[in-house]
Amino acid sequence: MARGTVAVMAEVPVELFKAALGRFASGVTVLTVRDDLDDHGITVTAFASASLQPPLVLASVAASSYLHEVFLRQDLWAATILAAGQRSLATRFSEVGRPSARLLLADLPHRRGSLSDGLIIEGGLAAMECRTEQRVEVGDHTLLVASVLDVTYVAERGAPLLHYTGRYTTSVTPPASGPRRHTGDPWPA
Ligand SMILES: Cc1cc2nc3c(=O)[nH]c(=O)nc-3n(C[C@H](O)[C@H](O)[C@H](O)COP(=O)(O)O)c2cc1C
């Protein structure tokens, strides 16, 4: 093989791809967006910080999702990072044919974001309002690169809801607070 070339398997089987990426433990986030008709929401694990200055996040939304089309039209949305006790919310917001976000949250504390008009779920680990700045088509998903307009709240403590090997888990012990050593981590909270 010539220098600089990379060996790529002709086609990585989708199950192998899922198994590998399933080993990347991730948090679980609910995105909400309002359009002329209603409030909508979707559970995603593909949500991450993208830039510190300016503060940007990214979210990846499947083109097959009914919300995809809404995210193409609407720039403003809200994101709530779920806490360990909010597993049922993650399920509610991922069911195919789910009702509007307003109905899904009718029995739960929430508020409407003043900047995005998106519904912000209370009791999460953090919530923020975002504005899509860039959309990038990536395979069967669209990557939303969004600026964070406001951080609505950050929980002082609490464990995260996690997704790992295709299942929800909460088996993480939050580290004890104390002095941090400088490790080069660009995201110390
Ligand atoms: C744990 C979990 C993580 C998910 N992560 C994503 C994601 O990152 N992006 C995405 O588009 N859909 C993701 N989904 C799928 C959506 O939540 C939803 O199930 C899917 O869009 C089907 O509903 P819809 O077609 O009615 O939108 C995830 C689902 C689950 C259960």
Please describe what this structure looks like.
It is a single chain. This protein is mainly β. The protein has a domain of 127 residues: Electron Transport, Fmn-binding Protein, Chain A (Pnp Oxidase, Chain A, Roll). Helices cover 14% and strands 38% of the residues. It is built from four helices and twelve strands; from the N terminus they run H-E-E-E-E-E-H-E-H-H-E-E-E-E-E-E. The strands form three sheets. Strands 3-2-6-9-10-5-4 form a seven-stranded antiparallel β-sheet. The chain has a three-stranded antiparallel β-sheet with strand order 1-11-12, with no helix packed on it. Strand 4 and strand 5 form a beta hairpin. The longest helix has 9 residues. The protein starts with 13 loop residues before the first helix and ends in a 20-residue tail after the last strand. The structure holds flavin mononucleotide.
Short description:
With 189 residues, this protein is mainly beta.
What structural class is derived from the secondary structure elements? mainly beta
**What is the CATH superfamily of the domain at 26-152?**
Electron Transport, Fmn-binding Protein, Chain A
Main sheet strand line-up: 3-2-6-9-10-5-4
The CATH class of the domain at 26-152 turns out to be: Mainly Beta
Q: Give the uncertain stretches in residue-range form.
A: none
Named CATH topology of the domain at 26-152 = Pnp Oxidase, Chain A
CATH architecture of the domain at 26-152: Roll
Bound small molecules, by name, code or SMILES, are: flavin mononucleotide
Shape: globular
- Helix count, DSSP H or I runs of 4 or more residues: 4
Fraction of residues in helix: 10-25%
Strand content: 35-45%
- Straight-line N-to-C gap: 44 Å
Whole-angstrom Rg: 18 Å
For the largest beta-sheet, the strand count, sense and barrel status come to:
7 strands, antiparallel
The tally of strands reads 12
Average per-residue pLDDT, rounded, comes to 92
